[in-house]
Amino acid sequence: MNDANRKFAIISVDTNDGDIESHTVEVTEEQALVLARVANAIKTFEPYETTGLGFPVKHTHNFPTGECLRMDMGEIPPAEYYVESEKISSEDYYEFLELMPYCEYSFHTVTEIKILAVIGEIKLL
User: pLDDT tens-digit profile of 6-30?
Assistant: First the structure.
């Protein structure tokens, strides 16, 4: 691959009360487009309220996964929030999950998605 065509995604997530994990991965042009579509969908996220556990609960996490997903409190899984509401396709959703950082106990909020385009490379060793 030509160095000038290389792209890297930097994806940052909140795992627990401001503990941010970042992950950098090389992406194809198609994957960069998937990230753009998913980022646009996440930008539309609006906090919502449910009556989880019998009392009102305000949910502010834009992409709760694993142990951070509180379905017992009425939190909506991201597949339901984004795919079933047709904000993104299921293909984009699963491609996005493949690019996400690994976090021991999962994460609840996507805080940043950036694409870096490489314009050159200097190998020092």
Answer: 999 999 999 987 789 999 999 999 9
Q: What is the Cα–Cα distance from 17 to 114, expressed in whole angstroms?
A: 22
**Rounded CA separation 48/120 (Å):** 44
SS (H, E, C) the chain: CCHHHCEEEEEEEECCCCCEEEEEEEECHHHHHHHHHHHHHHHCCCCEEECHHHCCEEECCCCCCHHHCCHHHCCCCHHHHHHHCCCCCHHHHHHHHHHCCCCCCCCCEEEEEEEEECCCCCCCC
Single out the residue of 120, 114, 122 nearest to residue 11, CA to CA: 114
Spans of all domains in the chain: 3-117
Distance CA 18, CA 111 (A): 10
The predicted model scores a pTM of: 0.88
